[in-house]
Each structure stands twice: as structure tokens, then as C-alpha cells.
Design brief:
mainly alpha; 6 helices
Amino acid sequence: MPPERTLPACLGVTRGSPGAAPGAAAGGVLVALLACGCAWGPQRAPAPAPMVNAAVASSTVLNEYLLLLQRLVQGKPAEQAEIVANAQRDYDTAPTPSRELRLALVLGTPGHPATELPKAQALLRELMAAPEMLLPGERALAFLVLSQIDDHLTLDAENRRLQSEAVRADQQRMANANHRLQAELDENTRLRRELEEARAKLDAIANIERSLNERKPGSTGR
């Protein structure tokens, strides 16, 4: 005798009750099957969620970023201003990692009036503090741009330091030259005064000798 086949749980409540008519029982079974989704035969498994290819997603996002930056660099001032305003507004509305990266890329791109490297650097450093929030391609792009901005700002600071030191050195050399010139002028003035005093003394001595010679007896003819 074959083993008894177990009915689905939803049929437990539809098995014929004593005194029920066969037709009514069959109708009840059908209704129960339709209501609870039970049916004889194999059941279909739910469709799996679509798989997201991270490489494809990263490539698509990077392409969008690069096209945006190309428009920013090549666009007219009005278009550049619109791109910057849109990026800032989107970030202010919902500061998601992708929008923060977009704003950082826009501000960190040279060649337009709204370039602001220190702010772009701060945004990128904030993103790199939680890199798992970005796609792999976004992480690589953020790291690359941040490295370039760091190098640029470091070189800019070094140039400013060297220029400042050069200006101070020029000022010091000028001050030293002025000091030497003033010292020479003072020395010339002192020497001129001493020379005039010596001449005055010589003139006085000459006058005294002339007066003495004029007073000597026998200075007149016999």
C-alpha cells in the first residue's frame, strides 16, 4: 500500500465535513486553493533580484563625471556658473556621497571662476574618511583628485613662502644698502665739516701771521 500523501495545510480546513454535499466540498477545495495560492504540482520560485555589476556601474558614473567636467572646462561663463550652482544646490538639498563628490570635482577643477581648491580638498577628505560609501570607481577618482589638489596646494604654499622670503631678503638688502649709504653720507658730511674747520683755522693763522709781520719794527724803509 503506497504511503499516504499529505495534503497542503490550506486543504486541512476544506476536507469534506460530515453531511456535506460532494459538489459543495469540491467547490470549497477549489476556492481554498485559489485563495491561499496552493496547487498541486511544482511551485515557482520567486524571481531573483537583478544583480548589479559594480564595474559597469562605476564605469557609467565615471563617464558622467568626466562629461560634466568637460562641459565645465569648455563651457562659456554662463554655463560654468550654472553647473557650479546646480552642483551646490544638489549637495545642499541632499548631501549624499555622490553629490558631495560631484561638488568637490567641480570646485577642484581649474579653469573657471568658481574654482575653490581648499573647499574641494575638505570635501574629498571627508569622503575618503568613509570610502565604503562610494563606488570603486568613485573612490579611485576621489583619491586621484585629492592627491592632485594636495600637491597643488603644497606647491602653492611653498611658492608663497619662497616669494615671501625673497621679498624679505630684498627688503633686508635694500635696508642694508640704505644704511651703508646713509653712513657714507654722514661720514662725508663729517669730513667736509672737519675740512672747513681746518681751512678756517689755517685762514686764521695766516691772518695772525700777516698782522704780526705788519707790526715788526723796521718794516718800513730807511
